[in-house]
Specification:
By secondary structure, the protein is α+β, with helices and mostly antiparallel strands. The protein is built from twelve helices and ten strands.
């Protein structure tokens, strides 16, 4: 267990290293106005922190830098997420006040906002396949026994197609069958609708519908056989990593830039069950070796309380955790709120 003084020294050192990207020495810490201890005392505590695995000493410097263990302790026990500045609040307010009529545009804009606010690379994962559910079905009549079918998902995506009404069935009866679909199928996953049509709807239609076979064929064509929208990934600020001194060496930068071009790898970076709150994976806590020199901070966003996607920030382990975590908390809540309101 660390002493209170060691915790203070560790917190100061991490904060200074995040700002400067330079190893921090004992004199730098002892000269702070809020520190009333000698450089020798600070040096002893720093040596103890190094022995305990919280600090590391680069070969060419007398100062120390945080280890992965040090960052983890800092994030778990010492950090206080930063509040939003007036500028940040203004950026979010303007972004979420913009009228956007497609879920895809909302998610893409979120990636841009997140990168601009944090100055790191952002990754935003659109709605997961297995969470997209039917919100409603609408049928808009056209001329000559044709209609436009609108399939609305709970993530806001709308699929439309022109359909021909079944032969021998009155248009008002077709509308009645569509209403039956809405009563029985709303809330089911998109990839379960065809199965539900056969198991839930068929018996009722068989008893009451004229031209049963024609109606069943029509309704089968009306429903999507899988999700209306596969998940997508959006990147913001891919070149932001170039601004970090840790990645000016191409041996480290090259694999990262290559990863940004491979969507399957990015999906794997974000894979796993969505957990509440903000999650922080530091260095080798990330399973992918390419980002062992990085930290990944993720948060899920939800529609009607159900997690449907993730937002993430990727940067060096020398990341401004307090600021990024504060931004992630605000942005995930804001995104969840606007999408939930949109789907009511």
């Amino acid at each position: 267990m660390l002493t209170d003084r060691q915790k203070i020294i560790l917190q100061i050192l991490v904060d200074d290293y995040i700002r400067s990207a330079e190893p921090v020495g004992s004199r730098t810490i002892s000269k702070r106005p809020d520190m009333s201890i000698s450089p020798a005392t600070v040096r002893n505590d720093m040596s103890d922190l190094e022995e305990l695995g919280f600090l590391e000493q680069p070969h060419t410097s007398a100062g120390r830098i945080p280890s992965q263990k040090g960052y983890r302790f800092y994030v778990d026990h010492l950090l206080q997420p930063e509040g939003f500045s007036e500028v940040d609040v203004g950026v979010l307010r303007n972004a979420f006040a913009t009228k956007i009529d497609q879920m895809e545009q909302v998610v893409q804009q979120t990636a841009t906002i997140l990168s601009s606010l944090t100055n790191y690379t952002s990754i935003v994962l659109g709605p997961q396949l297995n969470t997209t559910k039917l919100h409603n079905i609408q049928l808009l009549p056209l001329a000559d026994r044709q209609a436009v079918a609108l399939i609305v998902a709970d993530n806001g995506h709308v699929e439309n197609r022109v359909v021909s009404l079944p032969e021998g069935v009155a248009p008002e009866s077709v509308q009645h069958y569509v209403e039956l679909l809405n009563r029985k199928l709303v809330g089911l996953p998109m990839n379960k609708l065809k199965t539900a049509l056969l198991s839930v709807i068929a018996d009722e239609l068989r008893r009451h519908a004229e031209q049963f076979e024609n109606v069943m064929t029509f309704l089968g064509e009306l429903l999507p056989s899988r999700d209306t929208k596969a998940p997508k990934l959006y990147l913001g600020g891919k070149t932001m990593i170039l601004n970090q001194p840790e990645f000016r060496n191409f041996e480290k930068l090259g694999p990262l830039l290559n990863m940004f071009e491979q969507k399957d790898m990015l999906f794997k970076v974000l894979e796993g069950r969505a957990e509440p709150g903000v999650q922080v994976r530091i260095g080798q806590e990330n399973w992918l070796e390419t980002i062992h020199d990085c930290s990944l901070i993720t948060a899920s966003y939800a529609i009607n309380g159900e997690a449907v996607g993730k937002i993430a920030v990727l940067g060096p382990t020398r990341m401004d955790y307090a600021r990024v975590i504060g931004i992630m908390e605000h942005l995930s809540r804001g995104l969840s709120g606007i999408l939930t309101a949109w789907n009511k």
